[in-house]
Amino acid sequence: MEPTRQQTVAEPVVEVKDLETRYGDHKVLRGVSLSLMPGEIMVIMGGSGSGKSTLLRYVLGLSRPESGCVRVLGKDVNRISGRALHELRRNMGVAFQGGALFSSMTVLENVMFPLKEHTHLDRRTMAIMARLKLELVNLSGHEHRYPAALSGGMVKRAALARAVVMDPRLLFFDEPTAGLDPVVAAELDELIVRLRDSMNISILIVTHDLDSVARIADRVTVLDEGRIIMIGTLDEVRNSPNERVQGLLSRTPGEGRVDEEAYLRQLTRD
Amino acid sequence: MTGWAARLGERTFAFFSEIGYHFTLAAEAFWWTAVGGFVKQPVRLSLIIAETMRVGVLAIPIAAVLCLAVGVMLAIQGIENLRPYGAEDQVVTGIALAITREFSPLIVSILVAGRSASAMTARIGTMMESQEIDAMRVIGVNPVRYLAAPMILGTLLAVPALTVLGDVAGVLGGGLYASVELHISLGAWIDESLRVLVVDDIRQGLIKSFVFALIIALVGVGNGFQVSGGAEGVGRSTTRSVVISISLIVLADMAFTWFLNR
Q: Residue B44 and residue B33: Cα distance in Å, rounded?
């Protein structure tokens, strides 16, 4: 096996162990374990309903798991004090699927927001830092527009700028390319790789876009119905004999996916 | 199938857990207000001022008009009903007390509930749905500190202030009608009103308005954080918070009047 950056002796920056969660009576995640190494771009892949966005919520400490633990930069996000979590979050940047830009603020104010809350810099300095990041994502000139006036791709890039404005060690990105046309999607992928190379961030991405996975992933985690069915490089995933993995790659619906008994029960239940 | 007893149990549990939720929210908001500054996560003064503007200052014209109208209405009723007894001039006392103790806090609070409880729910609810609240949390900004606390404090400042304004407008409204009907000068009306009013009347109104303000803000903010189900969910919660806050205000008013005046 060729030596890659993951094989240097290093602590994982994100470590998920035996994570189990449920939504009502429905088990969403069933014993998920994975780790993200420094400087790595790991993609979590899976069809819709596979639990990938849910997994991200738990990694971010937005919800408490049923059991299992999530360690980010060596700290258990569900066991540390509020203040320690606050400190930890300075080192994490998150770009949500819909951008989640604050609609009452301009793009520049959005990007400045983390700086305002975490630093005591004066306004000018914060504005300069925010503009630098906006330039990085090719959004200079749009800083005084409100999110409602931006296109889908611009919203994603603005969200990315806000996520990295504190120079985090970790970046999380939920569906970076969903809803974008292929050209814009490719540009965004390129931007993510460039960010990793220039800022040395470790990146965890959730997506179902295969083209995107091929362009950016160092390693791929395949999630299916709340279970990890495979973790490996893109080539390993491509050559996997697992038919669920192949189904996902070739975008064909998996055979035998529907348990007939359960399906009948579902149709006839009262 | 669940039986009626189980459903009753579930409803009761839901009812109490909701009450508990709102009190926790209040406690958390006040905790941040008191302690936030020391852990470098203050409740921002600029945001409190912005909320006070939104809830209070922008409602000044409509609150004044409503209380004025109530004053006129009370004067008409009072004068017409006291005339058979030849006691029209007693209407001053009646209006001064009714306005400061009851109508001003009640009308102002119902107005603010309609204007602002709904707005708070809609704003927070939309932010929940668009993941803005999640974004805030992962940036390390507690949404209770950043959003809820300023809304609660702003409402607590705005509603009593509007109530004082409503007191003035209501008494003035009564005076305007009486000056035409009974030929009392407005100056004399106001002098007489000030003479019959004691500090306790105003204080009763203000204490009420504080409690009503707390109801409005907690119901508005609390329902906002509990929004689920997209745009429709936001709409549902908004309606819910107006109905609940107005109902609670009227019920609380009854309880207050009962305990303070008997």
A: 9
- CB environment B5-20: b (16+ within 10 A), e (fewer): eeeeeeeeeeeeeeee
Q: Could you say which residues from 133 to 192 on chain B have a Cβ atom under 8 Å away from some Cβ of chain A? A: 134-141
Return the percentage of chain A with pLDDT > 90, whole number: 31
**CA-to-CA distance for B57 and A113, rounded, in angstroms?**
27
Q: Where are the beta strands (DSSP E) in chain B?
A: none
**CB–CB of A223/A44 below 8 Å?**
yes
Specify whether the CB–CB gap between B98 and B195 falls below 8 A: no
Grouping H, G, I as helix, E, B as strand and the rest as coil, residue A99 is strand
Which residues in A have their CB inside 8 Å of a CB on B? 57, 60-62, 83, 85-86, 89-90, 92, 94, 96-98, 100-103, 113-114, 117-118, 172
B79: left (phi over 0), alpha (psi -120 to 50) or beta: alpha
pLDDT tens-digit series, residues A207-224: 888 888 888 999 999 888
Q: What is the ipTM of this complex?
A: 0.83
* Residues of chain A neighbouring B135 (CB-CB closer than 8 A): 94, 96, 100-102
- Mean pLDDT across chain A, nearest whole number? 86
Q: What is the pLDDT of residues A17-28, one digit of tens each?
A: 988 888 877 888
Kindly give, in sequence order, each residue whose CB lies less than 8 Å from that of residue A210, ignoring residues fewer than 6 positions away: A45, A249, A251
Question: Does the pLDDT of residue A98 top 60, yes or no?
Answer: yes
Sequence-ordered list of residues with C-beta below 8 angstroms from that of B30, at least 6 positions apart, any chain: B149
Question: What gap in Å lies between CA A11 and CA B232, rounded to an integer?
Answer: 46
Q: What are phi and psi of A231, to 5 degrees?
A: -130, 130
Residue B128: closest CA among chain A residues belongs to which residue? Answer: A100
- Cβ–Cβ gap B134/A114 under 8 Å: no
Chain B's closest residue to A168, CA to CA, is B139
Compute the distance between CA of residue B214 and CA of residue B179 in angstroms, rounded to an integer.
37
Tell me whether B39 touches chain A (CB under 8 Å): yes
Indicate yes or no: CB of B140 within 8 angstroms of CB of A89.
yes
CA distance A114 to chain B (A): 6
> How many Å apart are CA A238 and CA A85, to the nearest integer?
38
Residue A31 has pLDDT above 60, yes or no: yes
**In terms of DSSP H, where are the helices of chain A?**
52-59, 82-90, 107-118, 123-136, 152-164, 182-199, 210-216, 234-238, 243-249, 260-268
- Classify A229 as helix, strand or coil: strand
CB contact under 8 A, B138 and A102: no
